[in-house]
Give the backbone structure.
Amino acid sequence: MKKLIFGNFKMNMDLKQTEEYIDLFLPKVASSKNEIAVFPAFTNLMFAKQKFTASKILLGAQNLSAEASGAYTGEVSASMLKSVGVNYVLIGHSERRKLFLEKNDCINKKIKSALSQGLKVVLCVGETKYERQNKKYKMAIEKEVVDGLKGLYENELKNIIIAYEPIWSIGTGVLPNGKQIEEVVQIIREEISKEYSINAGKNIKILYGGSVNSQNARQFAYVDGISGLLVGGASLKADEFAKICNI
Ligand code: 13P
């Protein structure tokens, strides 16, 4: 079954490094049956799009402004991303929540802005180590899902993917087991079923992210209810990410 394999480059790779990466990467994934998207830095988006023209690789941005346009120095809007051919945008990544103090209402506004321009959204949710250890993870995840999607219509959910990224697993090599992921998948589906409909809960696509590499990718991608992977560190090496894309 086709999986979604997304690579979040975070704040890595300049233009030249991006070019070298793409030149290595494209031939290795040419026959992959999966849907692949890469999320480079803003400055590399347009260049990457041009390189991808003859391929099926999709393009994602790591962030966007909640505002449409105007006096917001340093921000990049949904329409700007759309105009350079971006398909997906990551919203609510835990690094943005923690380091840039993004709250659920801002995340919700960003989602609406992205959808208004026809971008697909990858909404990232996940609990801290403290919340996991103190059995508060259910509440934390429910809140991120419900507040993030507040005010959206059910027909807009087809353009939303939820990425479950337990914060304690991001960049640490500490892995959740299949049962833990399945439980969270269930929590997300139940919450969406309550807010919308059983069908909406059943149909929402959910990715797993957190310390995925070519050794463990298969085990995570085939957890029940998981549609694919959001890969950080291991997406930075063309060879390694290509292996994951070819699972
Ligand atoms: P790592 O794969 O480096 O743990 O990062 C995951 C992530 O944050 C992807 O968005």
Notes: The chain has a mean pLDDT of 98. The domain at 4-245 is CATH 3.20.20.70 (TIM Barrel). The longest strand covers residues 120-125.
